[in-house]
């Protein structure tokens, strides 16, 4: 049994490009983001991966990334499940603000704490701990059973919702998670053991030309 779980952060969004806090706001992908999604799908196809079901968030940038990846793999018709549980972390009052402007207003150290700490939320928003509190139950109750039943599973979501998952899968603690960055459009390929722990992990980084 394969027990395949692939995590992919959406491609670059318009607000990633503008260095804005995005959260639950809904900007589209940039041209680069679209290209990243296409390349991720081609990479997975070239390595022989396939999927039986895909999970994504309620936000358009993740949904479009998922659709583009599956399209490259010839899997546009597979079951795709959307859930708010996989949404990006809610940045609250920071949403829509330029990150440099936020530093000028609140100070670089405070903004760094809001962005990288485990349990310090920005005003009106979620910490990574808060994000994990909705992501992990959904993973345990809905996604993991499909993996353990032998379905090959794709999760196309966001930097922080995926950080919450990777923290558990890679057994990171609340200190080491602060340094974890998940690149846009780069699939993380996990295979799980029968006890649900990780048997292997690969980060698929390679350029696929358009030929």
TrEMBL record:
Gene3D superfamilies: Phosphoglycerate mutase-like. InterPro entries: His_Pase_superF_clade-1, His_PPase_superfam, PG/BPGM_mutase_AS, Phosphogly_mut1. The active site is at residues 10, 88. The record marks 158 as: Transition state stabilizer. Keywords: Gluconeogenesis, Glycolysis, Isomerase. Its EC number is 5.4.2.11. The keyword Magnesium does not apply. It is an enzyme of class 5 (isomerase). SMART domains: PGAM. SUPFAM superfamilies: Phosphoglycerate mutase-like (SSF53254). Substrate binds at residues 9-16, 22-23, 61, 88-91, 99, 115-116, 159-160. PROSITE patterns: PG_MUTASE (PS00175). The keyword Transcription regulation does not apply. CDD domains: HP_PGM_like. Pathway: Carbohydrate degradation; glycolysis; pyruvate from D-glyceraldehyde 3-phosphate: step 3/5. It catalyses: (2R)-2-phosphoglycerate = (2R)-3-phosphoglycerate. Belongs to the phosphoglycerate mutase family. BPG-dependent PGAM subfamily. Homodimer. Catalyzes the interconversion of 2-phosphoglycerate and 3-phosphoglycerate. PANTHER family: PHOSPHOGLYCERATE MUTASE. This is 2,3-bisphosphoglycerate-dependent phosphoglycerate mutase. It comes from Methylobacterium cerastii. The lineage of its organism: Bacteria, Pseudomonadati, Pseudomonadota, Alphaproteobacteria, Hyphomicrobiales.
């Amino acid at each position: 049994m394969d027990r395949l779980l692939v995590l992919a952060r959406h491609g670059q969004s318009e607000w990633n490009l503008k260095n804005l806090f995005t959260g639950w706001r809904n900007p589209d992908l940039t041209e680069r983001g679209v290209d990243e999604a296409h390349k991720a799908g081609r990479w997975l196809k070239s390595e022989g991966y396939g999927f039986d079901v895909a999970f994504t968030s309620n936000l358009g940038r993740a949904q479009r990334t998922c659709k583009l990846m599956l399209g490259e793999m010839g899997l546009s018709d597979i079951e795709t499940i959307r859930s708010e549980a996989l949404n990006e972390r809610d940045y609250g009052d920071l949403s829509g603000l330029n990150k440099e402007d936020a530093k000028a207003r609140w100070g670089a150290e405070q903004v760094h704490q809001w962005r990288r700490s485990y349990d310090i939320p920005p005003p009106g928003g979620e910490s990574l701990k808060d994000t994990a509190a909705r992501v992990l139950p959904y993973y345990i109750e809905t996604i993991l059973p499909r993996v353990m039943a032998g379905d090959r599973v794709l999760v196309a979501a966001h930097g922080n919702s995926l950080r919450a998952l990777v923290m558990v899968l890679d057994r990171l603690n609340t200190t080491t998670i602060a340094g974890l960055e998940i690149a846009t459009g780069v699939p993380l390929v996990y295979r799980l053991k029968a006890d649900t722990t990780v048997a292997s992990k690969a980060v698929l980084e390679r350029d696929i030309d358009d030929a």
